[in-house]
């Protein structure tokens, strides 16, 4: 029994120990706390309590059961929640544990919240348990949960008016739909409390009302005699019924009488180039003072007669414009811009004040002769004459525009175009081979345009026996045609002149003036001089211009435009003149009329428009029921100010100095002048910058400056590139500049050449011009006396309005040396210099200093060299140690900047120095350095060197790093002769 009792006791003790072990085991912190993944909260403005959904509760599986069978178990810290942690920057909230055992917590604001500063807050939160043991070791944390808290607004702000005072002026006797608008704002963050729900006029007994949007209008017609100014006090209410903190004062002035006029018109209207169309009268309306109107007619005129040829047009050459407008080939330009290939207009006064339009001035003393062969007009074929002309009041004398007359003796006029008493007259004599009968010979047009001092475009389509004249795109019939007999047959050559008629002094001598012309010769004179301006004089043989091309040549790039609203298109009639410089608007509905006027705009489609003023004038006629002009509306004048466009800078760059062998110059292909030419156009504009960023960067020079200059590339056309020879002119017997004509024709360009160079003309892209210039070759099949040749390239746009830099290229000729003649020099070459075996050597950026002179060494010079070398041998040996030490010092200096260059050991070299050669080399190197310094100062440094050039000029290219060593080495090779006794 004792044993059994002891056994039962042992069993009870074991059960108790097991429970105690379970309790000890429960103290192990195995699990992480758990919380929800997302919480949404609401907090009221100016409060710190957050209402969360769901509530903030953290659970932990380490929390033991409170009762296990009949034994009470004490709750341990491993299952308790000790805290919450908020993650995020500047989070204005904190989380607090309310009950560690249940894990319950709350989130509250650190300070009172302000909805106007921030409406919503988002951050993350984690729960932490209490860990193991009394020191809280092995503390575990839950996953991160996202908390979204919205701040509820309270109506704490009152409305505030944007302006302190509002003013308006009205005419007496008129009721307005709206006189002015008052506007208040509320700083509350919510839609409900920030919206203005109502405006109210506080001043009693005034004839005005205000609606919920703040628009004030009068409730009755106002009388100037009764009240000249009304002062109203207006308040506002937000949707939370808060009244404005301060009421606003509104002053409404009453005008005594109504004056019909245009209202809302701005006198100055600025137009920025490249912005498309610009509305001229967006807020304008016609005040008719409630008169019973039956019709309104307004004429809007844009005056541009002072801009170029009457308005803004493309200033390309006339020949290029014909190409752009689709005219067929065969056009000859008789008044071209002066160039090396077209120099007969050199010295003729030009009108340089009109944005590079090629305009020539004739004042009654100048005339020019067109070179022979330029025009070969067969009068049997149809032909076209076109010209821009500005001519003043007509004189009684004839004023010749174009004349083809006998070169000597008879002075007969074969055909001519002239002005006489405001008449334009074309003289066209028959060919002498035709039948001897009367045929039309003179065609007369009486034109106001011929004497109004304005620019006009004239086109004559001649197809014998009829002639059609177009002036500014409008066709005119001749009012008089006279007939004449054919000319008598003769072998006298003719002279084509512009600005006068050529007549020999031996012929008719009446009404002539002498002109000093070095090319005229003899006693020749000019007669019937023209007084005015001419431009774009063209002749085309074999085909007539069609109306589409004529309109294209005349059409302005600027003008008026209007986009009619659909609702008023039927009620108002709009008509334009051909050049769109004026329009008329007619209608009987004043509201529709105002809408049309508000949609009139100015448009300039040029990429680089002419800056300056374009005057505007509006003339208005108003009629009433009786058909009379019952309302007199005064004219309105203003102007469009076209701002200065961002002008392009055309830059030419590439290899500007290289050498080629004489064989290449004499080859069939010749030498390419511009192999790596680049044409780039940039514009420079000012942009506003943030002043705060400037202060942050330390820009304390001038805090008011808020612009900075930036450059960007743009694409546009070129119309001329000219290659000229620098120095002696080209000798056609043994040198030339050549370009494949098929390449020109593919791009629709034309080339002219002379002994001064060549000129490529025509409108085309910069890329196409660049490709063509790459193909220009220089050939010289007599290079014995040629050592270098220099050329200059200039490109331009818009007939010389924008001109590139002068890109100069120098080409050196390498004459092949005779090995026998150079035997002595070859023996003196150091072993470490590799001989050049290339047939062509490129020396980009280097001058060849008298390379041809080294082919023969005079015998006298050889004797001097031998004597000097013998005399200096012992000094060289004595100075070898100094040379070696200096070389080692130089090598150490070179290694710091040129680690990758090949070094050599010259300690074992025996050096023989020719003092005369050293002297010559020093002077030649000094000349090279001076030339390179001048080139660097001019900004013409060589940057682009092709791989072919670097290979073919390995020795000379390698001399760039080695020349620096050579220069220092040469200085070190100089001897100290201070101790010598002579």
From TrEMBL:
Membrane topology field: Single-pass type I membrane protein
Domain named Cadherin: residues: 35-161, 162-262
GO molecular function: calcium ion binding
Transmembrane segments: 860-881
Pfam families registered for this protein in UniProt: CLSTN_C
Main location: other
Renumbered residue ranges of the record's region Disordered: 917-982
Keywords: Calcium, Cell adhesion, Cell membrane, Cell projection, Endoplasmic reticulum, Glycoprotein, Golgi apparatus, Membrane, Postsynaptic cell membrane, Repeat, Signal, Synapse, Transmembrane, Transmembrane helix
GO cellular component, one term: endoplasmic reticulum membrane
Bias (Acidic residues): 926-963
Cell location: Cell projection, Neuron projection; Endoplasmic reticulum membrane; Golgi apparatus membrane; Postsynaptic cell membrane
GO BP annotation list: homophilic cell adhesion via plasma membrane adhesion molecules; positive regulation of synapse assembly; positive regulation of synaptic transmission
Residues annotated as signal peptide: 1-25
SUPFAM superfamilies: Cadherin-like (SSF49313), Concanavalin A-like lectins/glucanases (SSF49899)
Domain of life: Eukaryota
InterPro entries: Cadherin-like_dom, Cadherin-like_sf, CLSTN_C, ConA-like_dom_sf
Polar residues composition-biased segments: 965-982
PANTHER family documented for this protein: CALSYNTENIN, CALSYNTENIN-1
Protein name: Calsyntenin-1
Taxonomic source organism: Takifugu rubripes
């Amino acid at each position: 029994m004792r044993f059994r009792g002891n056994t039962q006791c042992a069993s009870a003790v074991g059960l108790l120990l097991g429970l105690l072990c379970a309790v000890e085991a429960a103290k192990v912190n195995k699990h992480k706390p758990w919380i929800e993944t997302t919480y949404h909260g609401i907090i009221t403005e100016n409060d710190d309590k957050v209402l969360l959904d769901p509530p903030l509760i953290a659970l932990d599986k380490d929390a033991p059961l409170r009762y296990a069978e009949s034994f009470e178990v004490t709750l341990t810290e491993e299952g308790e929640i000790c805290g919450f942690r908020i993650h995020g920057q500047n989070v204005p909230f904190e989380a607090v544990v309310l009950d560690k055992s249940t894990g319950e917590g709350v989130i509250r604001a650190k300070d009172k919240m302000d909805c106007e500063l921030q409406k919503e807050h988002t951050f993350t939160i984690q729960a932490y348990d209490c860990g193991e043991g009394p020191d809280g070791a092995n503390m575990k944390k839950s996953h991160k949960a996202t908390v979204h808290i919205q701040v509820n607004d309270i109506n704490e702000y009152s409305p505030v008016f944007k302006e302190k005072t509002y003013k308006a002026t009205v005419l007496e006797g008129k009721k307005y739909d709206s006189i002015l608008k008052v506007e208040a704002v509320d700083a509350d963050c919510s839609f409900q409390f920030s919206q203005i729900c109502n405006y109210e006029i506080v001043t009693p007994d005034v004839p005005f009302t205000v609606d919920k949007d703040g628009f004030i209008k009068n409730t009755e017609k106002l009388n100037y005699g009764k009240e000249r100014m009304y002062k109203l006090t207006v308040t506002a209410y937000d949707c939370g019924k808060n009244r404005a903190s301060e009421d606003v004062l509104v002053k409404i002035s009453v005008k005594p009488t109504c004056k019909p006029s245009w209202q809302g018109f701005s006198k100055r209207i600025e137009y920025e180039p490249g912005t498309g169309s610009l509305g001229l009268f967006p807020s304008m309306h016609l005040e008719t003072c409630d008169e019973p109107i039956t019709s309104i007619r307004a004429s809007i005129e844009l005056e541009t007669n002072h801009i170029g040829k009457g308005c803004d047009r493309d200033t390309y050459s006339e020949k290029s414009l014909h190409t752009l407008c689709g005219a067929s080939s065969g056009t000859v330009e008789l008044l071209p811009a002066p160039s090396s290939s077209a120099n007969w207009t050199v010295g003729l006064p030009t009108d340089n004040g009109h944005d590079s339009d090629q305009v020539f001035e004739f004042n009654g003393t100048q005339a020019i002769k067109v070179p022979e062969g330029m025009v070969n007009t067969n009068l049997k074929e149809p032909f076209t004459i076109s010209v821009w002309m500005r001519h003043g009041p007509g004189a009684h004398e004839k004023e010749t525009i174009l004349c083809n007359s006998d070169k000597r003796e008879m002075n007969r006029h074969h055909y001519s175009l002239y002005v006489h008493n405001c008449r334009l007259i074309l003289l066209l004599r028959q060919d002498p081979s035709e039948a001897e009968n009367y045929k039309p010979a003179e065609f007369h047009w009486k034109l106001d345009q011929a004497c109004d001092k304005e620019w006009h475009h004239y086109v004559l389509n001649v197809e014998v026996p009829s002639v059609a004249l177009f002036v500014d795109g409008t066709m005119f019939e001749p009012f008089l045609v006279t007939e004449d007999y054919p000319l008598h047959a003769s072998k006298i050559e003719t002279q084509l002149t512009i600005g006068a008629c050529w007549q020999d002094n031996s012929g008719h001598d009446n009404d002539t003036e002498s002109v000093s012309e070095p090319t005229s010769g003899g006693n020749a004179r000019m007669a019937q001089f023209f007084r005015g301006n001419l431009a774009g004089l063209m002749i085309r043989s074999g085909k007539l211009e069609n109306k589409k091309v004529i309109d294209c040549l005349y059409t302005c790039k600027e003008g008026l435009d209007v986009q009619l609203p659909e609702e008023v298109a039927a009620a108002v009639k709009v008509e334009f003149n051909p050049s769109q410089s004026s329009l008329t608007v007619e209608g009987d509905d004043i509201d529709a009329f105002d809408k049309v006027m508000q949609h009139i705009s100015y448009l300039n489609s040029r990429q680089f428009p002419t800056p300056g003023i374009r005057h505007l004038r509006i003339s208005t006629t108003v009629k009433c029921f009786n058909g009379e002009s019952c309302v007199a509306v005064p004219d309105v004048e203003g102007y469009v100010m076209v701002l200065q466009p961002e002008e392009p800078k055309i830059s030419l760059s590439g290899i500007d100095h290289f050498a080629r062998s004489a064989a290449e110059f004499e080859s069939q292909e010749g030498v390419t002048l511009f192999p790596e030419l680049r044409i780039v156009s940039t514009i420079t504009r000012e942009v506003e910058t943030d002043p705060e960023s400037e202060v942050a960067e330390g820009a304390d020079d001038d805090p008011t400056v808020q612009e900075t200059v930036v450059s960007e590339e743009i694409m546009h056309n070129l119309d001329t590139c000219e290659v000229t020879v620098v120095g002696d002119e080209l000798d056609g017997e043994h040198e030339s500049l050549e370009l494949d004509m098929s390449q020109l024709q593919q791009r629709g360009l034309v080339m002219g050449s002379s002994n001064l160079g060549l000129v490529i003309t025509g409108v085309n892209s910069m890329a196409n011009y660049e490709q063509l210039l790459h193909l220009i070759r220089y050939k010289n099949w007599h290079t014995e006396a040629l050592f270098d040749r220099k050329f200059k390239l200039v490109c331009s746009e818009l007939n010389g309005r924008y001109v590139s830099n002068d890109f100069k290229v120098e080409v050196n000729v390498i004459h092949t040396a005779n090995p026998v003649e150079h035997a002595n020099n070859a023996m003196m070459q150091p072993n470490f210099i590799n001989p050049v075996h290339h047939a062509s050597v490129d020396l980009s950026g280097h001058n060849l200093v008298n390379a041809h002179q080294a082919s023969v060494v005079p015998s006298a010079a050889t004797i001097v060299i031998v004597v000097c070398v013998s005399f200096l041998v012992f000094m060289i040996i004595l100075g070898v140690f100094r040379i070696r030490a200096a070389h080692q010092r130089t090598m150490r200096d070179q290694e710091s900047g040129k680690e990758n260059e090949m070094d050599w050991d010259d300690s074992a070299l025996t050096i023989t120095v020719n003092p005369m050669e050293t002297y010559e080399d020093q002077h030649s190197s000094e000349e090279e350095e001076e030339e390179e310094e001048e080139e660097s100062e001019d900004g013409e440094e060589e940057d682009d060197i092709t791989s072919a050039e670097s290979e073919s000029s390995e020795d000379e290219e390698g001399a760039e790093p080695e020349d620096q060593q050579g220069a220092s080495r040469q200085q070190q090779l100089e001897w100290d002769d201070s101790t010598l006794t002579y």
